[in-house]
Amino acid sequence: MKARMRFLCYIVTALAFVTLSLQAQAAGRDCNWLVAGRTYAFESEGFANSGGPQSLNAVGGMVTFLSNGKARGYVNLTVDGSPFGGTIDEEVSSYSFAWNLEQKPAVCTGTATLNGADLPSGNFVVVVSNAGERLEMLHNDAGVTLSFTALLMERGHCGDRTLDGPYSYNAKGWMSKNFVPGGDDRDYSGFVPFEFSGVISFHPKQAPADPTAPKGSALLTGWDNVLLDGVFVPRTYTGWYKVNSDCTSSMVLNDTLGNPPIHTNNYILRGAKGIAVINTDYGFVLSFSAWQAQ
Fold it and tell me: In the CATH hierarchy, which fold is given to the domain comprising 32-152?
């Protein structure tokens, strides 16, 4: 038994030595292979200042890093409550990652340019984490304050039952003053902060009651507690959601407070363990992630 244990120790030591040797050989070299062919989802909120008043931004989207050093995807943006979207065009987008020898142990770092005809300039410094399963991305264009973590996205085989059961969330954002009771519904010049935390449940086998819901959509229900400019407000809601084959989705929520319907675009994370969500309504600056609650 002792001889067998010594032999196993020798094997483990040898494997560890080989691993360290390979890491040492790889250090300083291209590590694009960690992300090549993989698709990531992301969401975040930040600020921009291009010489004028500071604007509030929210972003959500997906990006695929191609094996040729290019990138493509789609981004939803909201700038001061005005939503729009655009394609990350592989003709003007690129990335380059290499092992950073200045760090011990070496880490995979680099830059990514994610641009498109309908998008503002998108240049990022990136840390590739957890063997390419997570990207820490920091916008480095002048006048922009934005960072986010990009996580592996579910790919290519999503359908009606991809989202099923409860997901919890905790979010914060800004709301135009026209949605505040007593506010001026013509005034989009100012925002108030709001936060909310709760649970949204997906029911893929149930049809939504909303007659405007598109074909193939399913029922969603939920509840949360909202802090609107420091005022605590509980609410419930119902609505519909639709999952696309590329693992993007959309949702519409109708709450019990009498607010206008809430519309979102969503990006489903690997294993459907989470969802990156961005609000696409005028007057909101909001993105957040929801996570499986069971």
Answer: Lipocalin (2.40.128)
Q: What is the CATH number of domain 165-292?
A: 2.40.128
CB 39 within 8 A of CB 63: yes
pLDDT at 50: 58
- Is the N-terminal amide bond of 261 cis, ω within 30° of 0? no
pLDDT value of position 113 = 97
Q: CB neighbours of 7 closer than 8 A, spacing ≥ 6?
A: none
Confidence (pLDDT) at 246: 94
Predicted pLDDT of residue 143: 85
C-alpha 176/C-alpha 191 separation (Å) is 4
pLDDT score at 18: 41
Alpha-carbon distance 234 to 222, whole Å? 11
pLDDT tens for 195-223 read 999 999 999 999 998 899 999 999 999 99
Query: Do residues 136 and 35 lie in contact, with contact meaning Cβ atoms separated by under 8 Å?
Result: no
Q: For residue 250, which of 282, 293, 205, 220 has the smallest C-alpha distance?
A: 220
What is this structure's pTM? 0.86
Residue 221 forms beta bridges with which residues?
Answer: 201, 238
Establish whether domains 32-152 and 165-292 are of one fold: yes
State how far the Cα of 290 lies from the Cα of 249, in Å rounded to an integer.
13
DSSP 3-state assignment of 33?
Answer: helix
Domain positions in the chain are: 32-152, 165-292
Identify whether the C-beta of residue 154 lies closer than 8 Å to the C-beta of residue 292. no
Instruction: Give residues with Cβ within 8 angstroms of 216, minimum separation 6.
Output: 160, 242
Residues of the chain with pLDDT under 70: 1-28, 50-53, 179-189
- Do the Cβ atoms of 46 and 26 come closer than 8 Å? no
